[in-house]
Amino acid sequence: MDLTLSNCRLFIAIFSVFIPAAFTGCSNAPSEATGTVTYKGNPVVCGAVIFVGPDGMTKGANIEKMTGHYHITDVGSGPVQISVVSNDPAEPLDQEKPSNPKDPLKVNWSLPEVDRSKWAPLPKKYELIHTAGLTAVLKPGLNTGIDIVLE
């Protein structure tokens, strides 16, 4: 093989595209994660987890009521950023149209399905990906024990 300047440029171009991908640990293979969300040692009794995968795609999953368990699917494998939201279960879901739970015409109200005495408000920083500071590295397939510990 003749190593001309154009061949060297081609080799460098190919090398610069494929080799960094090998070192990042990212792949397009889907992954899923299960774990428990806790705040100050207690399960987060309601809410949702949000994962932003290495591909920039956002996926969310509900936290199981009263247990703190979650199961999120279709997340890109590799490093992910995580945020957690847990709204007061006794508040109306639609804050712009507060309603009375005794008024059947107000359909945007849902009665608490969890014991509110077990709920604790989370610090607001956990609601946003860029302030939560929560990360994990997911491998392709099922990742168990990806616990999210909030203090």
Report on this structure.
The chain is of the alpha+beta class and 151 residues long. The protein has a domain at 27-86 and 121-150: Immunoglobulins (Immunoglobulin-like, Sandwich), CATH 2.60.40.10. 16% of the residues lie in helices and 32% in strands. The chain is built from two helices and nine strands, in the order αββββββαβββ. The strands form two sheets. Strands 1, 2, 5, 8 and 9 form a five-stranded mixed β-sheet that branches. A hairpin with a 5-residue loop joins β3 (48-52) and β4 (58-62). 22% of the residues are buried. The model is unreliable at 1-26 (pLDDT under 50).
Question: What is the structure about, briefly put?
Answer:
With 151 residues, the protein is of the alpha+beta class.
CATH topology of one domain: Immunoglobulin-like
Count every beta strand, where a strand is a DSSP E run of 2 or more residues: 9
From the spread of the alpha carbons, the general shape counts as globular
* Annotation field: number of helices: 2
Give the H and E element order. Answer: HEEEEEEHEEE
**Low-confidence parts, pLDDT < 50 over ≥5 residues?**
1-26
Strand content: 25-35%
Structural class: alpha+beta
Q: Output the radius of gyration.
A: 22 Å
Q: What's the rounded overall pLDDT mean? A: 80
The CATH C-level class name of one domain: Mainly Beta
Distance between the termini: 60 Å
Instruction: Please name the CATH architecture of one domain.
Output: Sandwich
Give the name of the CATH superfamily of one domain.
Answer: Immunoglobulins
Largest sheet: 5 strands, mixed
The residue fraction in helices comes out at 10-25%
